[in-house]
Design a protein that fits this description.
alpha/beta, 343 residues, four-stranded parallel β-sheet
């Protein structure tokens, strides 16, 4: 339906046009747009049909002046910008959260805060009310951002349990420790005994929990822990390659390696290939995430699948509930061992 003004020019449809088309009052249309409270099913259907016919689009700025909300959510990644483009997991989470919010007609704003200056600017922007809540990805211990947002009363849900904040902040996480346990048990079941590990950053919950799962299974299997078989990484491909090189130098008899992310595992495969080690004949390799990096690796990686679709959906659900007045909540989701050619 085309709307024209007195001069014959096209104009965007208004709430008055919707009301006239639906045969209801402007107030009824307003109530439908703000949640449908105190509106009969017949009136709501008439208004929705009129919105479709007229092509009416909500003026978010005008509504925010009334509701005090921005009607938008921030997706905050506390990593350097290049990491966002390198690590496929961040893009999967961003896409999943965007789709989950689209069902509620809420846009998602991407925010990158990898430096102290960026974090200060982003904190000012968020606490000024430009978003109604924040989905926080890749939180590091010692980073005050999550605590600052919590103290400012900003609804917040973290991906992974923020270290040191306990139950103060809502979070959704895969069961990192259990996933690591499944991978190391798998390597032990293959008869491997000199099992190395390239950890994630140990100031992140995933880094800490995956290392803990590795240590637990070795102890249960009666395999003596050897610090020479542990190298640290930062989830980048380069750190996986460097970590595997360190392990090979310190423990040349290593016969398996658990790498705490698929992207790092790709780097580890490169290091093993350069050293003339066959995978999996000489060294079995296990990753974590089941990202596109696992499938594109040569050989394809045995890995731990994180349920990113569910993580995204749950993060959005918990955040919207918190915006609606509910208390902080924690959701931990199971992982799954995916066997491929690298073991």
């Amino acid at each position: 339906m085309t709307m024209t003004n007195a001069g014959g020019r096209r104009r965007p449809p208004t709430i008055h046009d919707v009301a006239r088309e639906a045969g209801v009052s402007r107030g009824t249309v307003s109530r439908v747009l703000n949640g449908g409270h105190y509106v009969s099913p017949a009136a709501q259907e008439a208004v929705n049909a009129a919105i479709r016919r007229t092509g009416y689009v909500v003026n978010r700025h005008a509504r925010s002046l009334i509701t005090g909300r921005s009607d938008s959510i921030g997706f905050l990644l506390t990593e350097p910008q290049e990491r966002f483009f390198e690590d496929p997991n961040f893009n999967v989470l961003l896409r999943g959260c965007t789709q989950a919010l689209a069902a509620h007609d809420i846009p998602l704003l991407l925010m990158l805060a990898g430096t102290e200056d960026e974090r200060r600017r982003i904190t000012r922007y968020i606490t000024a009310g430009h978003v109604d809540g924040v989905l926080l990805v890749s939180s590091h211990s010692g980073d005050p951002l999550a605590e600052q947002l919590r103290e400012a009363g900003v609804p917040l849900v973290a991906c992974g349990k923020p270290i040191g904040l306990g139950s103060k902040v809502s979070y959704v996480a895969a069961d990192d420790r259990d996933g690591a346990r499944d991978m190391v048990k798998h390597l032990v079941s293959l008869g491997r005994r000199r099992i190395g590990m390239v950890t994630g950053p140990l100031d992140t919950p995933g880094g800490v929990e995956r290392l803990a799962g590795y240590r637990e299974v070795l102890a249960e299997a009666g395999i003596e822990a050897d610090d020479r078989l542990i190298a640290s990484g930062d989830y980048s491909r380069a750190s996986g390659e460097a970590g595997a090189e360190q392990l090979l130098e310190r423990a040349p008899d290593m016969d398996a390696v658990f790498v705490a992310s698929d992207l790092m595992a790709q780097g580890a495969l490169t290091a093993l290939h350069k050293a003339g080690r066959r995978v999996p004949e000489d060294v079995s390799v296990g990753g974590f995430d089941d990202s596109t990096a696992a499938i594109s690796a040569t050989p394809a990686l045995t890995t731990i699948r994180q349920p990113y679709d569910r993580i995204s959906t749950e993060m959005v659900r918990v955040l919207l509930a918190q915006i609606g007045g509910e208390e902080p909540a924690a959701v931990i989701l199971p992982t799954e061992l995916v066997r491929r050619d690298s073991t």
